[in-house]
Design a protein that fits this description.
heterodimer; A: mainly alpha; 7 helices; 0% strand; B: mainly alpha; Globin (chain B); heme (chain B); transport (chain B); Hemoglobin_oxygen_transport (chain B)
C-alpha cells in the first residue's frame, strides 16, 4: 500500500485542522479503545485506566506526538519510526491485532471532532496512513 | 449470543431514533466503497464508482445503502436475538451473494465512524462501545449460517 500525493495532502490537512487538540484526541482515542475493546487494557497494568485519567491523557499525548512526527515524514515512515519500531518489537510486543483497534478509535475520535470535514476521501487517506504506521511499528516483530 | 445491558440498549436505541436511515445508509455504503475499494467487487452493476464523489453521489449506492441500513434497524429492534433475526439474510449472503463476512465487520466500523461525524460529542466513548457490540453482534449473526 502506497500513500499517494493526495493521501499525504489529506492527512496533513486533517492534522492541521486538529491543530493543538491532537494530544487531547490521542487521550480520547485511548479511552475509546479501552472501553470498546477491553482486551487492549492488558498492555497497561501499570496505568490508571479510569476514563480520562492523567495516565491515559499523558499516554495519549505520547501517541499523538509520534503520529505528528509520522505526518511530517510520510516519505520515509520506516526511517522516522525506526526507534519506535524497535520499541514495539523488542520491548512492548503489542500483538499486531491491536493496532487496528487503536487506529479505528483514532478515526472515530477525529470523526467526532471534525464532523463533515472528515470527508470520505480524508477518511480513506487517514485509514491508509494509520495502516502504514501500524505496519512499520510491527515490521521488526519477526 | 451478545448480551446488552439496559444502558447499552438505551445508548443504541436513543441514538438510532435520531438517525436518518436513508442519508446515513447511503453514506455508510458509499464510504465502505471509498475507503475499502476492493468491496466494489460486489457492485459491478452499479455504474460509475470511479471516484469518491462519483461513489457518494451514485443513486444505486444510495438506494442500496438505505436498504442495508433499514435492515440494520431490525438489529436495533432485536438486540436480544440477533441470530434468529438475521438467519434468512445470513443464508442469502452466503448462498446467493457470496459475501466474505469480513465485509460485515468493515461496514460496521464504517457505520460507527459515520455516526461519529453526525453526532460529534454525543457519540461518547460509552455510546461507541455499545454500538461496537451491536455491529459485532450483527456481523456474527450474518455469518452464523455460513457453510
Amino acid at each position: 500500500m502506497v500513500l499517494s500525493a493526495a493521501d499525504k495532502a489529506n492527512v496533513k490537512a486533517v492534522w492541521e485542522k486538529a491543530g493543538g487538540n491532537v494530544g487531547k484526541y490521542g487521550g480520547e482515542a485511548l479511552d475509546r479503545t479501552f472501553l470498546s475493546f477491553p482486551t487492549t487494557k492488558t498492555y497497561f497494568p501499570h496505568m490508571d485506566l479510569t476514563p480520562g485519567s492523567a495516565d491515559i491523557m499523558a499516554h495519549g499525548k505520547k501517541v499523538a506526538d509520534a503520529l505528528t512526527l509520522a505526518v511530517g515524514h510520510m516519505d520515509d515512515l520506516p526511517g522516522a519510526l525506526s526507534k519506535l519500531s524497535d520499541l514495539h518489537a523488542y520491548k512492548l510486543r503489542v500483538d499486531p491485532v491491536n493496532f487496528k483497534l487503536l487506529s479505528h478509535c483514532l478515526l472515530v475520535t477525529l470523526a467526532c471532532h471534525l464532523g463533515g470535514d472528515f470527508t470520505p476521501a480524508a477518511h480513506a487517506s487517514l485509514d491508509k496512513f494509520l495502516s502504514s504506521v501500524s505496519t512499520v511499528l510491527t515490521s521488526k516483530y519477526r | 449470543m451478545v448480551h446488552f445491558t439496559a444502558e447499552e440498549k438505551a445508548a443504541v436505541t436513543s441514538l438510532w431514533a435520531k438517525v436518518n436511515v436513508e442519508e446515513v445508509g447511503g453514506e455508510a455504503l458509499g464510504r465502505l466503497l471509498v475507503v475499502y475499494p476492493w468491496t466494489q467487487r460486489f457492485f459491478d452493476t452499479f455504474g460509475n464508482l470511479s471516484s469518491a464523489s462519483a461513489i457518494m453521489g451514485n443513486p444505486k449506492v444510495k438506494a442500496h445503502g438505505k436498504k442495508v441500513l433499514t435492515s440494520f434497524g431490525d438489529a436495533v429492534k432485536n438486540m436480544d436475538n440477533l441470530k434468529p433475526a438475521f438467519a434468512k439474510l445470513s443464508e442469502l449472503h452466503c448462498d446467493k451473494l457470496h459475501v466474505d463476512p469480513e465485509n460485515f465487520r468493515l461496514l460496521g466500523n464504517v457505520l460507527i465512524i459515520i455516526l461519529a461525524t453526525h453526532f460529534g460529542k454525543e457519540f461518547t466513548p460509552e455510546t461507541q462501545a455499545a454500538w461496537q457490540k451491536l455491529v459485532v453482534g450483527v456481523a456474527t449473526a450474518l455469518s452464523h449460517k455460513y457453510h
